[in-house]
Structure formats: C-alpha cells, structure tokens
C-alpha cells in the first residue's frame, strides 16, 4: 500500500497542478472575455453615437430639402405671376400706343383743336395744372409722375379731364 501511495502522491500532485492551471486559464479566459465584452460595449456605444449623429444629419437634410422644395414652388409661382403681369403690361402698353396713335383731335378750353401728337409735344412745357374756367369746358391737367411700380415711372404723362 505504501508503494501505491508513493506513486499516487506525485500523480495526484501533478493532477492538482493541472487542475489549478486549468482554473487559472479559465479565470484568465473569463477576464479576457470580460475585457472583450467591455471593449465591445464601448465600441457599440461609439457606433450608436455615430448612428444618432448620422440620423440627426439625415433628418436635417430632409427638413432642408422640404424647405427648399416649398421655396422653389413659391419662386415658380411668383415667376408665373410675374410673367403674366409682364404679358398684361405689354398688352396694355400696345393698347395705349394704339389709342395714342388713333386718337383724334381734342378741343381745348380756348376753342382751338389739336391732334394727340400736338398735345404730347405742347404739354411737357406746362408745369402747373390749368385752373378750370367753366364747368362745361375741357381742361388739360398735367399728370403727376407715375408710381415707382409703373413701367412709365418718372415720366409726365398728359391727361385730359372733361
């Protein structure tokens, strides 16, 4: 029995040593796993921050895009209105030019007759309006400058008041 104990003791010591080594390895493995888990948690947090920042940028970009689309629609609408206004202005200008050309003679309060072109030449020299003499007579009144929105801004346009 003693012989078997002598041979068994070194075997048991060896097994105990191997068992301790395995426990140390497991412990080291757990520590490594814990460290790896912590690294992965930190990496995950960084990725989550990047994801949140990217989503915020995407939301802002979408908002900017919607704003720009609305702004673009407003500008297109304004452009259409301006084009229509320009067409109306051109038509009105043509009509006025036609009326000026086709205008017949106008009799003034002194009884003389002038053609539309004569009046246009004579009136720019008059700077003050003529006071009415009688209720039935026609008076020529110098018009005030057209508004700043008018295409004829800055001109004095003759106007006949009956």
TrEMBL record:
Residues 76-162 are annotated as: Disordered. Residues 81-94 have a biased composition (Basic residues). This is Uncharacterized protein.
